[in-house]
Amino acid sequence: MRRAKNVQYPAIVSGSAAGEVTVRLTFPFRHLHYSFTIAVPRSLYVGARMSGKSAHVPACIGDAWLAGYYTAFTSDPALVPFYRILLSELRKIRSSQNYDDDAYLELIAAFVQSIPYDTEKVAAIDRAPRFPVETVVDGRGICSDKSLLLAGLLAHEGYAAAVLHFSPENHLAVGIPVPDGYDFRGCGCAVIESTALGYVGDAGGTFPAGDGGVRTLASRPKVFFVGHGSKRYGSIAGVSRILSVRSALREKLAEDGSFVGEIRSEEEMISCSKAELSASRNRLEELEAATAKLSEDAEAFAAAYAVYRKAVECHNAGVALLADEYNRLAVALAFLQHNRLDRPAVFARIRNLRI
Fold first, then answer.
1. Neighbours of 248 (CB within 10 A)
2. 201-238 burial, b for 16+ CB within 10 Å, e for fewer?
3. Which of 15, 88, 113, 140 has CB 3.0 to 4.6 Å from 46, enough for a Cys bridge?
């Protein structure tokens, strides 16, 4: 990592507190819930809290210093014992489930995404980042805290992890290199959103904003690599297919979507047929009370009435088929939404889905 010259970066000071801080960590992944306890040196936690979080940057240096700034948070030498303790537990899960590199990356992401969002801090004036050890011990964090923790964990496990800086949105996320065409706005990386559970590469959701609202990612981020390992994410094509199917399902099933429009069109046709049936039925009743001279007309109306009844039956059958199809697609969308932490299961479900 090349640091900008003449910049003073944050660094964890040596704390003097004795003992350990015990932290119970729980998170979901692929239909299972994991829970374990780690003991963090209290001196490390206190030292991180006491440390300054600002960088002293000379004027006119631009943003060249940011790579070193983010690396100072993710790779401070004092964090090595913390990473060793936490990653030993995550590696146990990987080993027990025989996860490959992609699944392990998703596991680590799910762990960080499950840490509660710090709504108080996001509304505060001072939103300086926490060091990763602080985020875990405090059990909460905003986008900067959680993204630096996730990027640090991935970097220490050999992934080419990056911090993605979205200036207009005032947002941080994590990036992982992917082939051209699968990256976000040509930045070379897929986005891993740290503030909510989601797929690697899913940048279409919303994230909390400092004003209490939510925002979406629209700009091309600046990319600052903090991990320089060789591991990438090889399942991005499958995720891309999942996100494409999700988008198509949402469009079809939306209140103003094409599918709902088809159902409403059928319902309007039924309504028209029912009105015509009602008029025909009233006329038949009049004819039945009339003289035999109008019997031929009565027979004509009776035939028309039979035709209308048949039409209504056909329309009802058509609506029933549309309703069944709507429910089929709605169930598929719900499965996709509720199983975001199980990419293989979702991909298998939608592989041959007809939309």
1. 16
2. bbbbeebbeeeeeebebeeebebbbbbeeebbbebbeb
3. 15
The partner residues of 33 in beta bridges, in order of sequence, read 28
Give the span between the Cα atoms of 268 and 262, in whole angstroms. 10
H/E element, 252:
helix 236-253
Which helix (H) or strand (E) is 52 found in, with range?
none
- Alpha-carbon gap, residue 37 to 92, rounded angstroms: 13
The two structure tokens encoding residue 18: 């004795």
Q: Take residue 21 and report the two structure tokens written for it.
A: 């801080």
Using DSSP, how many helices (H) and how many strands (E) does the chain show? Answer: 11, 8
Angle at 344 between CA 343 and CA 346, to 5 degrees: 65
Which amino acid would we find at residue 12?
A: I
Tens digits of per-residue pLDDT, 128-177?
Answer: 899 999 999 999 999 999 999 999 999 999 999 999 999 998 899 999 99
Q: What is the pLDDT of residues 74-130, one digit of tens each?
A: 999 999 999 999 999 999 999 999 999 999 999 999 999 999 999 888 777 677 899
* 62's tokens: 């631009």
Q: Tell me the Cα Rg of the chain.
A: 30
Query: How far apart (Å, rounded) are the C-alpha atoms in residues 289 and 311?
Result: 27
SS3 content of the chain, % helix, strand, coil (to 5): 50, 15, 35
Kindly report the number of other CB atoms within 10 A of residue 68's CB atom: 20
Report the Cα 154 to chain-centroid distance in Å.
19
DSSP characters over 202-226: ---SEEE-TTSSEEE--SPPEEEE-
Whole-number Å distance between alpha carbons of 292 and 52: 103
